[in-house]
Amino acid sequence: MKSSNQSPSVENENENNKEKQTVQNIKELGTNKVPTKDDKTIQCITIIGEIEGHFVGNPQKKATKYEHVIPMLYSIEEDPEIKGILIILNTVGGDVEAGLAMAELINSISKKVVTLVLGGSHSIGVPLATAGDYSFIAPSATMIVHPIRTNGLVIGVNETFEYFKKMQERINEFITRTSNISEEELTRLMNAKDELVSDVGSVLIGKEAVDCGLINEVGGLKESLTKLKELIKEDNNNETT
């Protein structure tokens, strides 16, 4: 009679495969696991380094690739076991189109979303920080708010400036729609001239981001998870009533 137990060699092979998959997930997606039916009710997504869009960034820099984040968000939306998402941000910004696309997707997902700014969430990281249902910022974390900019060759015609203007309007509309900051205050912060050495804009540290209405609350991981669980519980209660 054959034994149903696996041999030690098969068990070791399975463990090695799991370890390889974990390392691959961390390397490619920035998380130790991707959403599956066996996951818990909360999924964590990290957006770190530079947001990489249509062009490949500097290989020496840390980057979050939007072609990785978008399928992950889709799989979370389709997974009935996952009820909430914690998004941890420490980004210098990056590709505007890619960052805004991810922000819109986060904002439109049916799961409850809490964002946490650690270190910093600059430039296009600002709408990513406001895209969830509730946002936190660590006391020492910073957010740099400034108008969009580009480097390299720019064609100096009116159409180019109109394009930048419309892109800025899209970003401003998203931020004011997903946070408590007014259009006037956002414009003032973006055009401030006395805080950045070689650019216009503002640096907001911790509570300053809360005071102006960009972020909901100062807090860390504990506060973020507590709030997310509260939102999930409220959502479950609404479904049962």
TrEMBL record:
Can you provide one Gene Ontology molecular function annotated for this UniProt record? peptidase activity
Print the keywords alphabetically: Hydrolase, Protease
Superkingdom to which the source organism belongs: Bacteria
- Matching InterPro entries: ClpP/crotonase-like_dom_sf, ClpP/TepA
Q: Where is this region: Disordered?
A: 1-30
Please provide the Gene Ontology terms (biological process) for this protein: proteolysis
Spell out the SUPFAM superfamilies in the cross-references: ClpP/crotonase
Residue ranges annotated as compositionally biased, kind Polar residues, are 1-10
The name on file for this protein is ATP-dependent Clp protease proteolytic subunit
Native organism is: Intestinibacter bartlettii
